[in-house]
Amino acid sequence: MSSSLAILLLAATTSVSALNLDINLGLGLQSVPSTYPDFTQCLDQPSVYSCENTTTIENTCCSPTPGGLVLQTQFWSTYTGLERKGQLLPKGSWTIHGLWPDNCDGSFAQYCDASRQYDPAPPTGVEAYTGPGVDTFVRAFGREDLLDFMSKYWINQGASNEAFWAHEFSKHATCTSTFDVACYGPSYKKHQDVVDFFDAVIRAYKQYPTFDMLGSFGIVPSNKTSYSLSHIQKALQSQTGAIPYLGCTHNGTALSEVWYFSHVYGTEQFGTYKTLDSTTASTCSSTEPIWYYERSRGSEHEVRN
Ligand SMILES: *[C@@H]1O[C@H](CO)[C@@H](O)[C@H](O)[C@H]1NC(C)=O
Ligand SMILES: *[C@@H]1O[C@H](CO)[C@@H](O)[C@H](O)[C@H]1NC(C)=O
Ligand SMILES: *[C@@H]1O[C@H](CO)[C@@H](O)[C@H](O)[C@H]1NC(C)=O
Prior knowledge:
Residues 1-18 form the signal peptide. There is one protein chain. The protein is of the alpha+beta class. The protein has a single domain (49-301), classed as Ribonuclease Rh, Chain A, CATH 3.90.730. The chain has eight helices and seven strands; from the N terminus they run H-H-E-E-E-H-H-H-H-H-H-E-E-E-E. It has helices at 3-10, 16-27, 134-140, 144-153, 161-172, 192-205, 210-215, 229-240; strands spanning 69-75, 89-90, 95-102, 245-249, 254-265, 272-276, 300-301. The two termini are 38 Å apart. The relative contact order is 0.17. The model is unreliable at 1-29 (pLDDT under 50). The structure holds 2-acetamido-2-deoxy-beta-D-glucopyranose (3 copies). One 2-acetamido-2-deoxy-beta-D-glucopyranose (NAG) binds at residues 53-57, 65.
């Protein structure tokens, strides 16, 4: 009996997925493919913060170029519109919008690669995608853990979560040079870049726990108490070192969005984000009370376990 089989027999109390992993690793039957691009060549050029290079960035796999003003964006929504289908918001958390590559001057490109267009409902001029959902791409790489997190924290309004994830990839990641297919070299496996982007979005999102940052300053969702824009800005600035963009609906009185601006040292995948002041003016009123509304009854659920 091989030692890995012995381990398997002993591991009778572990979960099914842990057993599958043991089988894969122990007997080498089918390993989960990695999703790492090849950044080896990046050692040949100096690492810099994006948009802060003093010489030309030769290898654009190594730093988001153009598109070095990176925005991690989040939503505060009070409902999804698909509650009946079980599409709910995570209790105690803002939700993910995306990770956007603005140019250093604040302008931006979108839908940069028609061969990686997976958005089922793109704007006019871009062909709609009708193939399998991007969730199937993630599953093909054995990344149930990633799908699980995305299903809890990356929530759409009025349409499926998968459609939203596809939209974010095709609109923004295709314009982010560190996810270019060419960066993966000859061993590129189809959709590797998609999985890699989703991982990067989550990693960036976790740097900005908006709900907890606000909560620690007494700014909690309430339908009875409102807050001032400057109070909200100061709370977030005290933890990130910069003033993010805050978006409001209802004539600037209902808080609905936050965008954290940054320059990235190295790649979006694994690099370090330096948070910077927003270059976009807030759409929240600086004089009226700002409402940070409680979610509608039945629109949120507990996801921490
Ligand atoms: C930084 O790199 C980009 C991309 O190669 C280049 O267009 C830009 O001119 C560089 N900036 C400076 C100040 O050299
Ligand atoms: C916004 O304010 C304008 C002018 O005061 C008003 O006419 C409009 O109805 C308001 N809209 C909303 C959504 O409250
Ligand atoms: C709080 O107010 C918002 C905005 O009017 C509403 O959508 C939401 O359902 C309310 N939540 C609760 C728990 O009453």
